[in-house]
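FAQ

Q: What does a record look like?
A: Structure on top, sequence underneath. For example:
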């Protein structure tokens, strides 16, 4: 289904993931990415995040029910909400108490654009609204898996099980994550903000997912993933502030895996 390209990495050899060709984004997706509602500062980061190509690789369609987990400040919300507003459904799912405050602010500021966004808790505790089981065509999470590994409490497997529960049989899980070289100590996953491809694939497979393919859309060969402040040393965070800022600006944002998983139909 996916052809192996010449730029195969050590991570692929470990995980068995194929690098796939990226389909051309459909016109309505390109229109959403170019939308006037987007924040200029967010648009400036398109050269690192490649939103049209990434969503096209994940197969997101305007008629889909899409769940974005932990949307943060709403970077992808600015694209997905208008893209899905007419014929699809967009859920923003995060910590219920304050994890969705940025999305709520977007709804308050621009109800015509974001008024149809549905909010849900992730993970959902008793009494909190949850994404219905088997309702999603696509679940997406961007640069978030490492957060589940922090603080000495590994919540990653439980989170992948919840992603599996949300999806329809045959549905897609799309993950973009900062990529740790396979030869590094796995302990770095708990503090650096980077994850190994093989680790992410293992969590997904244990939850029941199958690997559909991997893209190098969001790769950055300049990123060595070994900085004193972890991935936050790089832009846009610049954890070291003005220390070697020009050096890290020249590297750019992190090297990222982009993996598509499928919930089997059987």
């Amino acid at each position: 289904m996916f052809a192996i390209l010449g730029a195969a990495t050590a991570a692929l050899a470990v995980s068995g993931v194929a690098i796939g060709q990226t389909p051309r984004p459909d016109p309505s997706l390109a229109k959403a990415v170019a939308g006037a509602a987007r924040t200029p500062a967010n648009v400036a980061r398109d050269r690192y995040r490649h939103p049209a190509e990434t969503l096209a690789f994940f197969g997101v369609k305007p008629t889909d029910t899409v769940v974005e987990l932990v949307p943060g400040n709403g970077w992808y919300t600015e694209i997905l909400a208008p893209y899905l507003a007419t014929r699809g459904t967009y859920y923003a799912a995060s910590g219920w108490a304050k994890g969705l405050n940025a999305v709520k602010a977007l709804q308050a500021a621009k109800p015509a654009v974001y008024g149809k966004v549905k909010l849900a808790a992730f993970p959902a505790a008793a009494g909190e609204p949850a994404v219905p089981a088997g309702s999603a065509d696509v679940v997406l999470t961007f640069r978030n898996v490492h957060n589940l590994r922090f603080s000495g409490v590994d919540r990653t497997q439980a989170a992948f099980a919840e992603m599996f529960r949300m999806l329809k049989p045959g549905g897609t899980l799309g993950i973009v994550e900062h990529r740790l070289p396979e030869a590094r100590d796995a302990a770095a996953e708990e503090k650096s903000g980077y994850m190994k491809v093989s680790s992410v694939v293992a969590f997904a497979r244990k939850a029941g997912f199958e690997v559909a393919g991997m893209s190098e859309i969001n790769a950055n060969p300049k990123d060595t993933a070994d900085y004193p402040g972890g991935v936050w040393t790089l832009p846009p965070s610049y954890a070291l502030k003005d220390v070697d800022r020009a050096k890290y600006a020249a590297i750019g944002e992190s090297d990222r895996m982009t993996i598509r998983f499928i919930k089997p139909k059987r």
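Q: Is there anything notable about this one?
A: Residues 1-15 have pLDDT under 50 and may be disordered.
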